[in-house]
Amino acid sequence: MTEKKDTPVKMEDVRAKADENHCAVQKSLVFVDEFLSGPMCGKCFPCSMGSYETRIRLRKISEGGSAEEDIAKIKGIADDMLVASMCKKGKDTAKYVLECLESNQFNEHISGVCMSSECTSHVKYVIIPEKCTMCGDCRDVCKDNAIVGEKKKPFSSGYLPFVIAQKRCTTCGECIKACTYEAIECVPTGKAAESEPVGA
After folding, report:
1. Mean pLDDT over residues 24-29, rounded?
2. Fold of the CATH domain 11-110
3. Is the full-model pTM beyond 0.90?
4. With contact defined as beta carbons under 8 Å apart, do 36 and 52 qualify?
């Protein structure tokens, strides 16, 4: 019985998966991740080592705690790969990253903002009071106990409104799935002011 060989990943597939994202940082990160796990042969030092270093820097930018130096390093690595990579696959990876770097989104991430809301370290979930019916469904599904407030009861008043304690929230997104009233939104960090509950 012959073993079934895995179908090799094509660079077109790598690009297609990366292009599913809107955030330039996530596009680059997905492209490099897919390249490293599939098409990269590892025979070329500038390509293999450069891709791994690029992935580390991209993750820093995506997760926060990055600096302008990381952007400069990524650009330098991509420039080197474009010239020194021995195959078209490495050069295509460098070109894709360089295209993404042309976007101002990388600098926005250094400032702690992901306008596409795809980098969870740069976003937060907030409850819109005008839409919230105080049903408590969001609180019930929150495994991090990050949502505080009181469920509404008939003929009663003086409720503590539902709010998300940002220091506890892990941005898992389960609350948004549970809210049928679209009262929870994912917004870039620092773009929406909200009151923090006591002890949050």
Report:
1. 96
2. de novo design (two linked rop proteins) (1.20.1440)
3. no
4. yes
